[in-house]
Design goal:
Layout (H helix, E strand, L loop, with lengths): L7 H28 L5 H26 L10 H24 L10 H29 L1
Helix pairs in contact: 1-2, 1-3, 2-3, 2-4, 3-4
């Protein structure tokens, strides 16, 4: 694999990784809007917002760092993952709340979830990149 991770096989893996994350993210929204009722809110939060999405973020970020995917652009991925976690909450609980009050008040997205997603991503990315660098040093 090239140092920047830009060969054809690497691009295919990057696309698959992106598709897997987006599929999990979209699934979390679909579960909320199709299968949830008010009594399941805590379970949904625990399963999706505080477990599945952060673990997926950690794993995908780790693989991005370990394989040096996206070249220098990989360092922007914590912003992407932070936005995605923030949007997951905003497009579920916040939107549901705004709909229930006929948009009388517009909720503001949660900065805390943005930072939580970014920190989880940075942790996975950093660990993965350290492994990548260590492997690269041993190959030289």
């Amino acid at each position: 694999m090239s140092k920047t991770g830009e060969d054809g096989d690497s691009m295919k893996k990057q696309n698959i990784l992106t598709a897997v994350y987006l599929a999990v993210w979209i699934l979390s929204l679909m579960v909320f809007w199709i299968f949830m009722d008010g009594a399941d809110a805590i379970a949904y939060s625990l399963i999706f917002l505080y477990t599945l999405l952060p673990l997926t973020t950690l794993g995908v970020s780790f693989l991005i760092g370990k394989n040096n995917f996206f070249g220098k652009g990989k360092w922007a991925s914590p912003v992407f993952f932070g936005l995605m976690l923030m949007l997951a909450e905003y497009l579920t609980f916040s939107l549901s709340n705004m709909i229930s009050i006929s948009f009388a008040r517009i909720n503001v997205p949660s900065a805390e979830l943005f930072f939580a997603g970014a920190v989880v991503s940075l942790l996975g990315l950093g660990i993965g990149y350290l492994i990548y660098r260590r492997k690269a040093i041993h190959l030289e």
